[in-house]
Amino acid sequence: MALVVQKYGGSSVADADGIKRVxxxxxxxxxxxxxxxxxVSAMGxxxxxxxxxxxxxxxxxxxxxxxxxLTAGERISMALLAMAIANLGLKARSxxxxxxxxxxxxxxxxxxxxxxxxxxxxxxxxxxxxxxVAGFQGVSQNGKDVTTLGRGGxxxxxxxxxxxxGADMCEIYTDVDGVFTADPRIVHTARRIPAISxxxxxxxxxxxxxxxxxxxxEYARRYDVPIxxxxxxxxxxxxxxxxxxxxxxxxxxxxxxxxxxxxxxxxKITVADVPDVVGLAAKIFREIAGAGIxxxxxxxxxxxxTTGLTDISFTLPRADGEAAMAALRAVQADVxxxxxxxxxRIGKVSVxxxxxxxxxxxxxxxxxxLADAGVNIEMISTSEIRISxxxxxxxxxxxxxxxxxxxxxxxxxxxxVVYGGTGR
Amino acid sequence: MALVVQKYGGSSVADADGIKRVxxxxxxxxxxxxxxxxxVSAMGxxxxxxxxxxxxxxxxxxxxxxxxxLTAGERISMALLAMAIANLGLKARSxxxxxxxxxxxxxxxxxxxxxxxxxxxxxxxxxxxxxxVAGFQGVSQNGKDVTTLGRGGxxxxxxxxxxxxGADMCEIYTDVDGVFTADPRIVHTARRIPAISxxxxxxxxxxxxxxxxxxxxEYARRYDVPIxxxxxxxxxxxxxxxxxxxxxxxxxxxxxxxxxxxxxxxxKITVADVPDVVGLAAKIFREIAGAGIxxxxxxxxxxxxTTGLTDISFTLPRADGEAAMAALRAVQADVxxxxxxxxxRIGKVSVxxxxxxxxxxxxxxxxxxLADAGVNIEMISTSEIRISxxxxxxxxxxxxxxxxxxxxxxxxxxxxVVYGGTGR
Lengths: 424, 424
What we know:
The structure is a homodimer. Chain A is of the alpha/beta class. The first copy, chain A, has 15 helices and 20 strands.
């Protein structure tokens, strides 16, 4: 008998029927002999609707009040889910983030979890009840105010609770079958990845794979909580995210590349003709950081010896493009660069795989595949287990497809076996 | 400078425009130099919509979870109201019932307030912020669970907070101009009552006047909190509910009858041919009480000496009619009464006024007016300051109109002066 934390996303509890279906799944888990703690998001579009209401009364609502407002969403879904479970004959009890002991800092709208003290959750379990916990929310340590955790917050709540309760696993239920070798909307032959390591999943998430948020995977790695990402609409196994050995070990060793991720949310800024003087690059990036903007890739060309000038390019979220350009223009005279170029018609394509550590030639294969597909590479960046390129936005699909094929990730007759494996 | 608790009902904050209008009124009160604490209900039909959702997932939702669900309603309205006030340049901070220190018993759905410890509210006031408190909700003393106060709960929250904070007054904003001498939909010449005593208001509320709930008036009387019931859609003075001397004293002394109330929500049960034996009536009403049903009026006819049998009639909420009949049928053989009659086509009409204590002949005037209007009286009950009659449901309007006219409550040329008076 295991202790399982199950997290259900908004699409799984979009309406009363969805809530009843999820209740049945939870009851089935209990009847299979497991203890269950449930974390639930707000129903369907509730959070967006509440955001709309806020905009109608204030163009810039105070963050504390926005958190108070948004947390009404999970309050509704968790109470309904508890009712639906009770209607199936089992005891269920809903808990707000505060009641569940999710203690955060004071950063409303993007609070970080400081501590989890799940005394009431443990009490409910001991009492034979199924605790239903509001995802995405907590209570601030100092102000005792309601906070929200920001994007991916419900996944993080689930993993944090699993860690604090010493759960055997954390199941993240969503509307897809798991993590795929590429976005199936682009690559129809993409396969579900049965098992992936925390490090690879972190790279995939950072490079645009949207199934799991970076933050929840970081938390899971830190506390070694195995995650099972799966669909709430089927009973198929999904993707296990855990330590590198993963599902029986052998399947993960076989894969040089686990998957191909892409991201169309970035823009590129090029600071042209920067005098090649010590400290100028630092000055430029200090400006960007001062504006609260996170940058992703940075490329500096070798200084042209004849001119003493160099170009520095970097990528950043498109949403921050304007703010970054304004910040840079303000220091143009001071830094003495020549020109500023902004390009938001780019895309990033990344191949991720722990196997590339021991397999030379991955970049040659990747770049060769792109060349064969006629895709021009604008920027390159690498980590130990990832190679990312920036390409023209219009070339993203072709690049993803070419890389997926080059690393032999396309589904074959083997797929059925892959689907049959349940990881751990 | 006064400390004012203002309560806004669901119809006042039905949409974003309503919330912005209420925010302006709150800001105006602050700018007039007063300290303000606001209690707010859920927006418009939110509570009904949440009830509907609950029904969709469970025919009989657990009371604890229903409370968790319903309290999402005030959470939304209070956060939006705080945002709207902040947008007008003042500090506002929303608080749940729990955060505001509204401590209740464990009776989910109809919790009673045990204590109010408004430390955070006082802190917000000291900090120059306007506290916005969720009405209708609290936290249970033992379980630390979210509770709701049941019907009229938000009014009670407001009065309880006003008492705990030692506020100078509690303003209850609603969608009518105050308490009227009769329902203006029936009596077009009904006048707003500028001031009324707690006792009279209690009788009015108990007899069907819907503007204020019995419970909130009881609380106000116990802690001597003056209530000002008024419209959030106008700036006119409403009705002051306070100690008997009220608004300058003289106006209340003039009125023998403050108002005429009516109630169409009751039914009448007649237990016929009850043997006139000691203890049988007690047995009958023990059965009714055992079924959790509150009865209102009771009339027992004098026993007919020739038969040794008597009839007992009583009124009760129509909603409880079936349950009461079933309970009585179950003891028919044991008690030995002859017949059970059920009539839900009745209405209760009451005249209420502290002046009737010192003015004899009120009942003669009342019954005479009903007779002249051709209205037959089925039952009569009285208190020190009230006379109620049960009549045929179809006669209610005629009875209210006749009584209103007989006690000279119809608006005359004096009305403008009445409207001009602001009470205290």
